[in-house]
Structure formats: structure tokens, C-alpha cells
Amino acid sequence: MYSTTASGEVNRPRLCWTRWFNRDRPSASGDWETLKSLREEYPGKICPAKLKNFEQNISSYKLVIYNTKTGFVCRNKDQKRGRCLDYKVRFRCPCRHCWTQWYNRDTPSATGDWETLADLRKENPGKLCPHPSAVQAVTIFIGIPAEQTGQTFYFPSKGFVCRNQDQPSGNCFNYKVRFKCPCFGIP
């Protein structure tokens, strides 16, 4: 599915990486991160159509299967040491919405941590879509989602705000944010 711009240019769908999956641990036979098993265990989390790309965290082990049709298989019997490591995989799929890179324009100041869309646009011209559909915020150092920090914060339509005055401790954590945009709207 393609769309065209007003000038007649073709917009090809963006590809987005899935999260990392690790459904199997090295067993008597090896580590099996097969596409069939992953789709059964994580319904709707991996694109149903043909995959465009595939990535796994491998070392120098001999691979038996590693492709976008089957997934990843490491068999113990094929390894010099007789045992596979524990691998994780992710896939690249066509998507309608993509997440931007992470941004951290502010540190907790006298008033809080202000990761506003207006300020981010000024500092990163052309990098953010006009109308993000969602925003995610996580702590800088450990990556804890804002919702799990116990802090009070706001997701105004214009970004993320954590105000020191709303926190029992009197201080916000330092957060970074990213925005969900239509894939065609991210440069």
C-alpha cells in the first residue's frame, strides 16, 4: 500500500522494528525462536505479512536457520561447545505508526521537567510530525515508564510535563520522551 504526495511523489510504507522477543531458553536441543511459535505466543505483535528484515543478537555460533520465513534456530548439536547461548530476535514490519527517536531537552529544573512539543520542534526542526497520536516518557537512567514511577505528570496534547510542586519529594525525575507519528509523517 502506497500513498502519493501532492507533487506526485510515492510514499512507501515505513518499516518499524518490533520489540525484542525471547520465547525459548537453550534446551536439550538448542534455542528455537521460530516465527510460527512467536506468532502463537505473541499474537498480533509480529507483522502477519511477509517480514522485511530480521535481527538477532548473535555471537560466533554456527546458525542452522536464520531468515525472515522461519525465524531463528540454534541447534546444540551444531555448536563446537555443544550448547547454544540464549538468543533474542526482533523483526522489521510495515507499519502505520512509528515512534520517533527519544528526546531529552530539559532536566528537572526549579519547576520540573518540561519536554514540550513546541520546544522540541524548535530544537529539532523537521524531526517531529505535525500531530503525534501518543507520547511515551521514561526515566533517563533506568528507563522506567513514567506511569510506574509514582510521580504525577501530565501528557498535554503538546508533550510531557512533570511539575516539582506536584511531587511528594518536591522533585521530578529526569525523563526522556518520544512521539508516535504516522509513518509518512516522520522524516
Automatic annotation (TrEMBL):
Report the residue ranges that make up the WxxW domain in this protein.
17-93, 99-181
Q: Where in the cell is it found?
A: Secreted
Q: Which Pfam families match?
A: Mucin2_WxxW (PF13330)
What InterPro entries does its record include?
A: CILP1/CILP2, WxxW_domain
Q: Which coarse location class describes where this protein primarily resides?
A: secreted
Q: Which UniProt keywords apply?
A: Glycoprotein, Secreted, Signal
Tell me the domain of life. Answer: Eukaryota
Alphabetical GO CC annotations of the entry are: extracellular region
Q: What is this protein called?
A: WxxW domain-containing protein
